[in-house]
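Worked problem 6 (solution included).
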Amino acid sequence: MDAARISTIHNLCSEILHAHPAEAGIDPRFSVLDETQAALLVQEAAEATLAWAVAAEETTPLLALLRERPLLDLIATLLVNRLTVSEVVDSLPADTIFDHWQAQLIARQREQMDRLLADPDFVAAHRCLLTNQAIRTDDKCEIQRQSALAALSIPADASLADRRRLLAALNDIVLVGGSKGSWPGGKEQLDEVKAGLRYLREAYRSQSLLALNLNRQDTTVATVMPAIYRLFQYAEEVYNRLKTERDALDFDDLEALAIELLENLPAVRSYWQAQLQALLVDEFQDTNARQARLVRLLCPDPGKLFIVGDAKQSIYRFRGADVTVFAAEKGQIQHTDGALIDLDTSYRAHEQLLTDMNGLLAPVLGPDRPHRPSWVAPFAPLYPGGKGVATNLSTPYVEFHLTAGNKAEALPLAATALVTRLAQLHADTDFGYGDMAILCRTSGAFQYYEDALDSADSLPHGGRQGLLRATGDP
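Solution. The predicted structure is:
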């Protein structure tokens, strides 16, 4: 381990480029811009581009659409995501962009509709309506059942437009009404039919693309896309010039240039592959497609590659991280007979806490399903490891305390309520203050809990000081 190379992806890219500056066509003395420095250059380049755009004839259509501030924000956004934008610009037509959007939308709608109609739960809800019928045809729930069945009676040769029109009726399902006396099975059968109707309605509503149509505003935006392309080209030229003047690269440059070296120069690729006996990538859910490509270039042998990640943490979207990259890598590991190991054992919580958290999160995240979108992370329970965490309570339990109001209003109330509850636990159980800790999501909450602890006369000084802790994990 003492000889292991441990670094961030960007530090490794920097090392590769420093080892091969001539091949990369860069100054070997280059410096790396941190995110603050890069943001300042982006802002400078955006302002220079805006000044040019005001006088340039080719950007006139864009100026008629956006005011100064939104246009400046657009330029900055394009620069921050310039590698992705470059790929998109290179792949899109300049003069038929609206037709391209229309074709892409239709293709995605077909995919979404096919996935919806094949979903096992959707099929089961449809079957529920087919096999349950009311005695009275004028029952309100029976009327809704008939409407839903009509919406699902899609001819095999129906066009996409007709299929969308039929399914749209699911959005209008009403669950109010219905008499248990109108159903042979009484209330139980009525509830079953309503559950099926509810699922069909919510499943349709979750497929937002199915109700989407390009409109007049899309047409307007499509006409100014060539001007946006030119705006981006100019902004990128300015930004690159500013970096060149400083002999500097940003994080995106490090990734792009390192990948270019490894892809185009076999000798360089072979050298760095020979440096690795094995490669471990932690927090893989925080990688983007370029970084995943870099990992595969460095370690093409799946027997040497180890990745660790949690798709549910992908909400943070660090530097363009894309959880679908993580999902694709998991799929590739499975298809190449690699080992997929669930790290589902927790040694940091007692069994009751894990049981309660599993029960809380299971319906929120939902189970894994066939045809699940790759960006959706299903629920995965955690289990206690070993003897678990010892507690002084004979029966461990979890309490939830909710306070109303915005953050500024709720935090003082939450802090006071929590300190009061801890004091009560201390008085009523054999818990000592040394057995307690307050874990804060961020240090910004400290002052509220410190004030509440200082105001609690029943707490000894040592207890007040020892209770407060900070952690990077929520």
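Discussion: The first strand starts at residue 31 and ends at 32.
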